[in-house]
Amino acid sequence: MNLERLPNEEKLSLCRKYYLGGFAFLPFLWLVNVVWFFKEAFVKPVYSEQLQIKTYVKRSALGLLLWVTVLTTWITIFQHYRAEWGEVGDYLSFTIPLGIP
Amino acid sequence: MKVLTVSGKSAPICFKVNIFFINFTDLSVVFSSDMRKGHLYFSFAGVGCNSVEKKIYVHLNYTVPCVRLLNATHQIGCQSHLSGNVGVLHVLESEENVDWVLRSGPNPPYLVILESPLFTRSIMMKLKNGSSRVAGVAVVAPSANPLEGVSPHTTCPNENTGVYTENYDPSLAHCNVTVWNPLGSGLSYEQFDFPIFSLKDDNDTQVIRQCYMDHNRAVNGSTPQYPLCAMQLYSHMSAVTDTATCMRRNDINFSISPEMVCDPLGDYNVWASTRPINNTAKGHKMWESVVIAAARLDSRSFFFEVAPGAESGVSGFVTLLAAAHALRNATQEAPPNRTILYTFFQGETFDYIGSSRMVYDMQNNNFAVDLDNVHSVLEIGQVGLRADSRLWLHSDPVSRKNDSVNVRKLIESLQTAAKGLNVSVNEPGFSQPLPPSSFQRFLRARPIPGVVIEDHQSAFTNRFYESMYDNAEYLNISYPPNLTPEEQLVFVTDTAKALTEVATVVARALYIQAGGAESQLEGINADPQIVTRMLYGFLIRSNNSWFQQRIPPDFMSHLTDRPTNFYVGVAQQRSELTHLVQYLLANLTGSTANISQDNCQNQREDEKDKESKHMYSYVWVQGAAPPNSTKREGFCVRSTVRLSKALSPAFDLRDYTSKNYSTWTESRWKSIKGRIFLVASHDLEVNFPFTPQRHEKAQSPPQRDLPSPTENTVHKLLQTALL
Fold it and tell me: Nicastrin small lobe domain: from which residue to which, for each copy (chain B) (predicted)?
């Protein structure tokens, strides 16, 4: 979708939709929001809706960073300690590797 | 237990070759004349399945791996990577040479070939500690037994599941008084991170040694240059850590593809009685007093399914089978007061699987009799290597102190039985615990009088306990040269005569212990003909005419031209051994019944009979063919032989960390194979994303002939294509 062709109100509404959608445990919507609207929010010359778009993009970036941190931490802990957790580790796993703890 | 069989790889590779050809012929159609196109088509047809893979790899035909076994606390055995372990071959010359493998060799990882005198604990432990440089070990099994004793088992077999625990008597626990297996190195109970295979000393192994000599050996101190001869061994085991973990992973339901990773060890115990006992009504039987005659069936060695078990297993149960046969007439004509119960336990090597299960069933009213019915126990241990014709009677010193436990009577029965025979029975003469025996599990439940007959006074005389050398040669079973298999079957060896004497003593002692009259003893004699045939069948060749006459027709295909394998195996698979003992016991203690085949196989005397199956069991055996025809005349054998499940109670109770019962399981695996090839140096390794392995050069190994000219062209085409 080419943002050039959209009027500014629609750009704002799209940005808002992606921002609000990300709260439904969908951090990729926030990633898309940040990447897609970055130019609109920070590079383009000022227009009336840009301030709102800027806010949405900043908040999406913040949420994204939070998700990335949480997921990275959990994945690191799980990969490292799954074998030691024994039963709990097995019940949390979707596929268990064969032949290694 | 094997789950997937990997089919021969030549077929898919052939297909791949053909596709390449189609491409080239398409290309060449543009440039070539019809004649050339015909030539390429011809070579397409000519190459057929002579694939590139066959020019690179020499597959090992006879691969005997060591597999992973798990129990409540440990895992033992060997493990390889999922994609096999590749190592540069090195034939180990001596123990000092291990240093070269572990430290100074320039091309790690190495795959060490050991001749059997070097397969010792010290070398294996050193290799285990340096396992980053060791890709695997291949042991060349010799054709003759070594001179000095080798036992990979522990020094104190089954020390935690016998009766001698801290509670019973701490001074007798953990082999404090007598170390039963002093030659034990404990190798079978170690965990290795690389595969260990056993190779037979035949042409394949000669190819391997030749490959090493040609390519890998350092000449005049210079390091060998690439390409080097390498071997790849696959024996990836799915289970890990211990039994509780692998049984839990078996049970997990919500994964996409539920995978079984291990199976409990177990099989069936075989038992029979001299008087029919109602097998459907379980639990205590009023007025029934039973003398149990026990023997153990199974054995093991370091490698998977190699378990000749001659002295450790066969000597005992063949003696008991012969004794059961000797008692057949006496117990029919002049039945003694008590019933004699012949029991053959499976899985005793692995913490008494069979006997613990039978005792558990007896305690839970799940068996035809219960422990209150048991009067005494006579067990036959290892009796094949009698020095000075002496038999030793072992008993438990702790329970003997109790006056109600009348071991004296049992010993006197044995001494009476041995009178007039060429066997002398003695007690060890000092206070000594019982050797590892199934009777210990009965004692754990309650004090019962019992004696274990062995051929050793204290430590085992068996120098190859639970090893692959405990075979017919070790029992001195030798035949005169130039005999056909049929003639060997009927030749009575000295070992057979010796075991027959033991069987006669056991039979007579059982008769007296069961309350029979001494006047009948003269008529109770074991038959050396039967003993020698059984020894031949179990230790040399199970596919022989004597066995064939005593089995049902559908079991014929299970008999092989090799000795019977005595490894207990996983519980789902009933082993050849259990079937054979069941049918032999039926033939030796049962009688012919004049019943049609249909009725016989449905366990009834005639169409309306519904009661006989509680007391008897019926087997239709195929019998012999009469002299002037080829069709066998089958007949029905009625006997009291039954099978009882030999699966450790720990698996029924789901207590996988049990300290009381055996928790042994065997891992599953996908494929077990090995192959040798020449490998190029790391510098030539082309790092395509789809070829993560070392780049195997398409050079033929030494023994192969050069390919024909047509194939050579093709070969070169493919080489350029693959590179």
Answer: 65-239
Tokens describing residue B508: 């007579």
Report how far apart the first and last C-alpha atoms of chain A are (Å, whole number).
Answer: 48
Residue B306: other Cβ atoms inside 10 A: 20
Give A-chain residues touching B259 at CB under 8 angstroms.
98
Work out whether the CA dihedral A54, A60, A63, A65 comes out positive or negative. Answer: negative
DSSP H/E element including B89: strand B85-91
What is the mean pLDDT of the segment spanning B600-610? 88
**pLDDT tens digits for range B370-380:** 999 999 999 99
Q: Which is it for the CA torsion B197, B201, B207, B212, positive or negative?
A: positive
Question: Which amino acid, B291?
Answer: V
The burial class, CB within 10 Å (0-12 / 13-18 / 19+), for B681 is middle
Tokens representing B323 are 């004794």
Q: From the DSSP assignment, how many helices (H) and strands (E) are in chain A?
A: 4, 0
- Using alpha carbons, select from B348, B341, B343 the residue that is nearest to residue B267: B348
- Rg for chain A, CA atoms, rounded: 20
Q: By C-alpha distance, which of B66, B64, B63, B60 is closest to B78?
A: B66
Are A99 and B238 inside 8 Å of each other by CB? Answer: yes
Sign of CA dihedral B54, B55, B61, B64: negative
- Give percent of chain B above pLDDT 90: 61
Distance (Å, whole) CA B723 – CA B470:
51
Q: CA angle B443-B448-B450, nearest 5°?
A: 90
Residue B56, pLDDT score: 86
Residues 6 or more apart from B491 whose CB is under 8 A from it? Answer: B479, B480, B483, B532
Lookup: tokens for B723: 């590179």
The Cα–Cα gap between B140 and B115 comes to 5
Six token digits for residue B155: 């020094």
CA dist B312 and B321 (Å) reads 16
Q: Is A76 exposed, middle or buried (0-12, 13-18, 19+ CB in 10 A)?
A: exposed
CA B146 centroid distance within chain: 20
Cβ contact (<8 Å) for B255 and A87?
no
Residues of B in contact with A91 (CB under 8 A): 252
Under 8 Å between Cβ of B71 and B243: yes
CA distance B320 to B326: 10
Q: Which residue of B has its CA nearest to A95?
A: B255
C-alpha closest to that of A17 among A2, A36, A4: A36
For helices B494-513 and B315-333, the axis angle rounded to 10 degrees is 50
3-state secondary structure B268-319: EEEEEECCCCCCCCCCCCCCCCEEEEEEECCCCCCCCCCCCCHHHHHHHHHH
Chain B contact present for A88, CB below 8 A: no
Which residues of chain B lie closer than 8 angstroms to A87, CB-CB? Answer: 248
* Predicted confidence band of residue B706 (pLDDT cuts 50, 70, 90): very low
